[in-house]
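Hi all, long-time lurker, first post. I run a small reading group and we've been trying to get comfortable going from sequence to structure in the token notation. Rather than ask abstract questions, I figured I'd post a concrete chain and ask someone more experienced to write out its structure so we can walk through it together at our next meeting. Sequence below, copied exactly:
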Amino acid sequence: MEANSNFTENQLLLSSAQLQEQLEQQKALASVIVRIRESLDLETIFQTTVTQVRQLLNTDRVAVFQFDREQNWEGEFVSEDVAIGWDSAMAVKVYDHCFGEQFAASHQQGRVQAVADIYKAGLSDCHVAILSKFQVQANLVVPLSRQKELWGLLCIHQCSEARDWKESEIEFIRQIADHLVVAIQQAKHLHEVQLQAAKLAQAVQRDQVIAKIVDEIRSPLDIETIFKTTTQEIRKLLQADRVAIFSFNPDWSGNFVAESFAEGCTPLVSVQPAIADTYLQQTQGGRYVNNQTFTANDIYQAGLTNCHVTLLEQFQAKAFATAPILQGDQLWGIIAAYQNVSPREWQSYEVESLSKIGTQIGVAVRHHKLLAYAQYQAEQQKTLTSVITRIRESLDLDTIFQTTVTEARQMLQADRVAVFRFDPQKDWEGEFISEDFVPECNSIMAEKVYDYCFGEDFAHLYAQGRVNAIADIYQGKFPSCYVQILEKFQVRANMVAPLLKKGELWGLLCIHQCTAPRYWQPSEIEFTSQIAEQLGVALKQDSYLKQVQMQVVQLAEATEREKAMERQELLAATIDKIRQSLDIKTIFRTTTHAVRELLEVERVAIYRFNPDWSGKFVADSFKDGWKPVVQDQPMIIETFEDTDDDNELPRNETFVPIREGEKLWGLLVAYQNSQPRYWKEEEINLLAQVGVQLGIAIQQAELLEQTKRQTLELTQTLQELKQTQTRLIQGEKMAGLGQLLAGVAHEINNPISFIFGNLIHLSEYTQELLKVVKLYRQSSSILPTIQEQIDKSDLDFLIEDLPKTLESMKVGTERICDIVLSLRNFSRTDEAELKPVDIHEGLDSTLLILGHRLKNNNERPAIEIVKQYDNLPLLECYPAQLNQVFMNLLSNSIDALEEKFDTIQQRYLKLLQTCPKIPLTIWISTQAVHDQIVIRIADNGLGIPEEARSHIFDPFFTTKAPGKGTGLGLSISHQIVVEKHHGQMKCSSKPGEGTEFLIEIPSSN
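-- Answer (accepted) --
Happy to help. Here is the structure in token form:
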């Protein structure tokens, strides 16, 4: 009874101790959980946990191990608490190749590994070695899994001795691990939120910088200040080594106009000459025209052309990002960011920011140009008003002329402006009567000028009011006499407007540029034309009283300004419609419709001249109820002939010439037939300006069409060059193959000749030895030992088989000799010129070389060769090339037969039926017909479809699967037969029955 009482008391004490221990564990667990939740820093959480757990469990080491996702179960200890006297495991890379085999799967399922003694637990040697490295005797490992993914391990190490882990300890550590996993997930979410917040902050900062740049761009600053500010701000925003703005020239070369760069970079603005990028010039802006950006993280790895890389090296660039600057729909330039020190991976938001700034710069450039143009037009109108006012204020022509040339030269910034007067008593002779010029030019006052070319080439045009603008006197096709006169006055560019007095050509207003060529702008031409018109008015009213003249001037000013503005608006609208398309039919349709509405006429038509000066209407726009005049057949309009029969004229019409350069292309005609109409001068002038723009549009359309044709021709030429190159390479390959075959044949021929020659002697010697053995056997004095050896060696069989063996060796050597001869016949490396040969030798040699493909194999039965050779004379040909043709045709036939067998066999396999015997045959026949050698090579394959048959001789065309044919065999064969041998090569085929190739070659080439 006392014993039972003691037992019960012991149990109660044990239970009480266990409860106390569990209570302590729960307290410790709660403490650890509180500390885990007090911090969001993962390192702090880990360190707190390992310290608390080691103290609670009284172990030698507690550590957190993290796997490296990029490696195969490799990782390191990221946190630990270790007792004094034991080594630290921190930052030690661990790779246990046994882990993946033994524990990875179970740990991923949440299994805890508790090892009381690592030397008695049946662990692998590699695992024990790793644990021994960290002085571990007993080991408790709990997985840290995050969303079914093994993140790491919580490791409890007893280093001093083995240890039996209690279930309560294991459960305690499992609960600690669960809370650690929650902390890891919270830390990951916090990190992601922080990253998103940082990105949002960067985006906000970036948008603020871009908004600031946009505000500065839109502020009323000059364009250079805008460029400078923009490049500086963008370089700061992108942290780039250089940001530059590049502007295109009309020929698609260009220059850097602004930049901001880091210290040590070489400047590009005003230093680099005009940059000519051949790609941008050929494509007229390339991808940038389509508003596309372009980036290169490393110019040497981006697949750029060598010339492009060389150009970028001049800019010291290692990486770049570019965006277009569009002025409306036109490409004006590029904004570029460069990284010079090293390559750089450009982010999408950086490129987007660059593109946005490029768009804003384009708007600023457009506004700047519109403002400059408006200011220039205002200055022109101001100058024109000033000139007109001064003209009207004076009755003295000399004063009028001097005032005009001075004001006009200052406005146009020309080197010389002068008034030339014709002598009415002489044939187009005259002198300069007024001028204003820069000091670098010579005076031409009172210079007598007689230009006999003038009356022939220009007089009638000037009489019609035409203004002649020449950008460079050496670039146009001008008469030499005309060029010599202009050279005399140091003229390089010339603009001349006629001065008309009562419809007669009185003189010329001449604008000279002496220092360099100059491209006259339409506004400058119009300004000069208006000045000339006013001088004409001054000439006509030169004798009027000053009071009347002042009244006329005041009236004319208001009227002219109103008309000019209206005319400019209407003309600009019409010209804009013309320039919106490069399609000539669209241009004609748009122009005739716009001019008809502009002039309020009943019909506007375009008439085109033929070389014989007949012509036809190619476009017209007419009022409802009228019939079209556009015809397909040429016609001659009597109106435009030299006739005095006014009855045949329309009741009212006017027309102006359309010139394509210096060539009269046609006429722009306006009709008013329902009632009389008197055409106003400004209407005719407006029609003339539209005619000039039409001529330019026609010229541009012609140039575009010419460019397209040239592009097509260049593409075709490039394709032909590629084909030629490929054929040459194929020819070189066949030549190399021929040399290889010839070399192999030569090397084999020497030893086989030696063997073949010695076989004859060996056979004779063997016969003699056999005779001696026979005689010896007939002797009765054979020793017993010899007789025993004879019985053992089966001498009778040896005597019978030895001659057969020698005969087999002879047959084999003869076969090798035949193969060597066939190789030499096929290669014929010493027969590159025309030579008479037996064509059958080439066919047989080719068949011998292809013999391995004709035999039966595991995939198909043997291919039967049926020869039908005629008695042929020797054929004069290129033997090696003709053998190549035979090789290509026979190889194709074998391919076709193999495809046929495979197709039929697969069909029966799908039907689960036994495949019948499939005949595979190639027929080769030769025949002499008249002066032609006819060779036929046919097979009973599947045949060639009709749609493919017409292309089989085209280069690179093939019906074989990718990788099984280049598409050059038949093309080269056709070239050899037709071009080299002046013969013919034809193909006939019936799908499902087979294909036959026929070669006809003249007997004598």
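A couple of things your group might point at:
The two ends are 134 Å apart (CA to CA).
DSSP finds 25 helices and 28 strands in the chain.
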